[in-house]
Write a structure and sequence with these properties.
- The chain is globular.
- Strands 23, 24, 25, 26, 27, 28, 29, 30, 31, 32 and 33 form an 11-stranded antiparallel β-sheet that branches. Strands 4-3-2-1-20 form a 5-stranded mixed β-sheet, with no helix packed on it.
- Helices cover about 0% and strands about 50% of the residues.
- The chain has 1 helix and 33 strands.
- It folds into 2 domains: about 300 residues, Tachylectin-2, Chain A (5 Propeller), CATH 2.115.10; about 150 residues, Jelly Rolls (Sandwich).
- It is mainly beta.
- It binds beta-D-fructofuranose.
- Beta-D-fructofuranose binds next to strand 1, strand 5, strand 9 and strand 13.
């Protein structure tokens, strides 16, 4: 039995979404029309806010405005009216902070204002500049600051301000990107309105396409919470992941002025955040409550290469699960890991477990639920040169194949989208391989979370992640098949996932 916790509108009335094909149930989607990046993620007065890039008038990118949703658990979202509509300029991505001390002077003398920092895109002049706006009603509406723009370089590709407070150096920091130059800039401010350039980073790592949506995050090392390092993440719209968009990160230090890579900490060439085509523009929450370990981020589960063709209706674009970040050591270097926030476990019901045992050759074992939303945990043990294939399929065949090759110490992901792709341009883009190396494959743990058109695969507790959209033609399930060598199943458990929206 799935739980049906209906989605509520602002006045607490139930919203009937309808049984739309492909609509995820516990991943955020807008009721209708286009969405892309998460924006302005902030926790304030008992509410998690999710603002997002939104076209209120259509299913394609355009008229960019900030849509708005709130939640008290990061999983059950209530969509509210548009928070920042486009003006004569489009409202591009950015962040929101709480101005606790009324440092900006934009408060109303009662409650701390929420300050939104975003890029205003003047399409006539082809100029992107940084603006701010403030809210006195818990993010329901914003007033544009009279002194805008707060940063204007006269540049066409200057965007996506991420603002946070840096305690050690006593300043508000803005991280913003020169998208085509592949340069991240760091600005400092004492009054939250006037900003001074303090340092830059890049070009570095993947420098194809455009750099977008930087975030600078202090992340703890798993199992050593007193040890943390700065992670600089930047998205790349084209290049790092075939058939999609991707993000890279660097591990290093930040002194309040500039970010420096530490070659003995992380890979100086950068590493991929997610190996799938559909995880983009992730941003972390500001001001998480003590009850929610962090950092936590959420990404747009789509991409700038193929996402505009995704055949969903009347909505297009979804958010990933909220994921908690951690650093872990592998082969002498620190890497970024991501796992679903603990509350996600609360959506699971109806456990079905298989008895552990050897995986005979040729056996095609059906594991998962034939359901629209399920979570499959699978641990595979290699007894020598094992090659195993795990698939997520619908009645027509595989949607995603996960090939585990213990000899080559690699996992090969393949996204199949024949049925949908044949009706679309750029067909070739939809069937793609991604190979990732692991340092050991004696035991591999896979968590496969399927929710309508969303698939997120967490390898070894989130040490690698692969996210993709698929468009099943019927109920989905998982299967496992031994191809060669000797392997066994150490654990196989599947859960149905409860719905947080009414269907
Ligand atoms: C990333 C992005 C941002 C921009 C926004 C526009 O997906 O291109 O760089 O601010 O989306 O919608």
């Amino acid at each position: 039995m799935t739980m049906h916790t209906p989605m509520l509108d602002e006045g607490g009335q139930h919203v009937k979404i309808g049984k739309e094909r492909f609509r995820p149930q516990f991943h955020f989607t807008a009721r209708k029309n286009w969405i892309n990046d998460p924006n302005g993620l902030v926790y304030f007065e008992g509410e998690y806010h999710l603002f997002f890039q939104h076209n209120p008038y259509g299913k394609d990118w355009g008229n960019m405005s900030w849509g708005h949703a709130v939640s008290d658990d990061l999983l059950t979202w209530r969509e509210l009216p548009i928070a920042i509509p486009q003006t004569d300029q489009m409202i591009f991505s950015g962040s929101v902070v709480v101005d606790w001390q009324n440092t900006s002077g934009l408060g109303d003398g009662r409650d701390p204002p929420l300050l939104a920092y975003f890029t205003a895109f003047d399409t006539e002049r082809d100029i992107q500049s940084q603006h701010m706006a403030f809210s006195h009603d818990r993010g329901r509406s914003f007033t544009h600051y009279a002194g805008n723009p707060i940063l204007d370089l006269g540049a066409a590709d200057f965007r996506d301000p991420k603002v946070f407070y840096h305690d050690p150096s006593g300043a508000w920091i803005m991280v913003v990107v020169l998208a085509r130059a592949h340069v991240i800039q760091f600005y400092r401010s004492q009054n939250m309105r006037d900003w001074t350039l303090a340092g830059t980073f890049g070009p570095q790592g993947v420098i194809t396409g455009q750099w977008e949506c930087p975030d600078l995050i202090l992340v703890s090392v798993e199992g050593a919470t007193d040890q943390s390092h700065w992670v600089l993440k930047v998205d790349v719209d084209e290049g790092p992941v075939d058939g999609g968009s991707g993000a890279q990160y660097f591990v290093g230090s930040f002194d309040g002025y500039t970010f420096s890579i530490h070659p003995d900490l992380g890979d100086p060439c950068g590493a991929l955040v997610d190996y799938g085509p559909d995880f983009y523009a992730a941003a972390t929450w500001f001001n998480l409550p003590a009850t929610q370990p962090g950092p936590v981020w959420i990404g747009w589960q789509s991409n700038h290469q193929t996402g505009r063709h995704y055949p969903t209706d009347p909505w297009r674009g979804a958010m990933s699960l909220p994921r908690m970040l951690f650093l872990f050591e592998e082969e002498g270097r620190l890497r970024l890991g991501q796992k679903p926030i603990a509350a996600t476990d609360g959506l699971r019901s109806e456990v079905i477990s298989l008895v552990p045992g050897p995986l005979g050759h040729g056996v095609n074992l059906k594991l998962g639920n034939s359901a629209q939303a399920f979570w499959q945990h699978l641990a595979l043990i290699d007894h020598g040169e094992g090659r195993v294939e795990v698939t997520v399929d619908d009645s027509n065949g595989p949607l995603i194949t996960i090939g585990l090759d213990c000899v080559g110490q690699q996992i090969i992901f393949r996204r199949h989208m024949i049925a949908v792709a044949s009706a679309m341009p750029q067909r070739g883009h939809f069937v793609r391989l991604m190979t990732i190396q692991l340092s050991q494959m004696v035991r591999v743990d896979l968590d496969v979370i399927v929710d309508g058109s969303s698939i997120e695969i967490f390898v070894n507790g989130g040490r690698r992640v692969y996210s993709a959209c698929v468009f099943p033609q019927g109920p989905t399930g998982t299967r496992v098949r031994a191809i060669s060598g000797a392997t066994s199943i150490g654990q196989a458990t599947s859960w149905l996932m409860g719905s947080t929206m009414s269907f």
